[in-house]
Structure formats: C-alpha cells, structure tokens
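Appendix C. Worked example: L-histidine N(Alpha)-methyltransferase
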Amino acid sequence: NMVPGERAEFLAGIADVLEPGEHLLLGVGLVTDPAVLVPAYDDAAGVTAQFNLNVLRVLNGQLDADFPLDAFRHIALWDAGNEWIEMRLEAQRALSVRVAALDLDVEFARGEQMRTEISAKFTLPGITGELAAAGFEVERTWSDPDDRFALVCATRS
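Step 2, the predicted output written as structure tokens:
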C-alpha cells in the first residue's frame, strides 16, 4: 500500500521492464461504503488489531525499543480525501518510549496517534488514470458482484 507518488513510481517501474503489448494484471480494492470498509480493518476477533500491534513488537525486537503493547489500541478509519483506510495505534496513557538502536526517546500524550499503515482503495476511473500516466492502457476490468474488488488487465503502451 503506497501513497500516490510511490504508486506512480512503482507503476512506472513495472512499465519500464515490460515491452509494448505485454500485460499487467492488477488487483485493487475499490472505494465502497465506509460502513463496510472500516469493519474489515477492525474485525471483532481482533486479528487486525494484533497485526497492527505487531509493528511495536518488531520495533521492540529489531530496534531495542520498549513499547508497552498494552498501552496502545488499534484504530481503523476511512480517509475519504485520500481514498484509503488508515491504521493507527493510539496511546492509552502518556508515556515515554526508548528506541535504543536509534538513540531516540519518544514522548506520547494520552490519545496521541501514530499511523502505521494505509490501505489504498480505488475507483475504476482513478486506477485507469494512474495506469495511463505510467504508460498502460486498460483493456478490461472485472469486479466482484458487490464492487468491492477489481482485477484490471492493462497493456503496456
């Protein structure tokens, strides 16, 4: 999941290694009702929350940090302006975290949030435009019956 500038660079990189006439098959999540999208990233079983909190586990293990996992809660929200789901971790209390490998101390206020991930969603005209800008022409699209996911077949121009 990339912000638009990173996506443009990524798609252009793919175009650079393809010959004209070669194909790219791309799967994309589609913009849909936030009442459907948000619960998909904040499931009742807490699987996504554990996945998100794993970011802190990795920082603790790889960078000798001391994030207390129980001091953060998972948040998923829809950012309509950017057409993506944001995953965040919110500090449940004021705390100080040491990241020893970076010689860094980070202060968190209660309620302060940090973005850990985005999951971009697309409209078909939007992804068609992004692909065109990278040197592709969309030949065909397929989507599920609820228009939540699409496959896009594009040809290198």
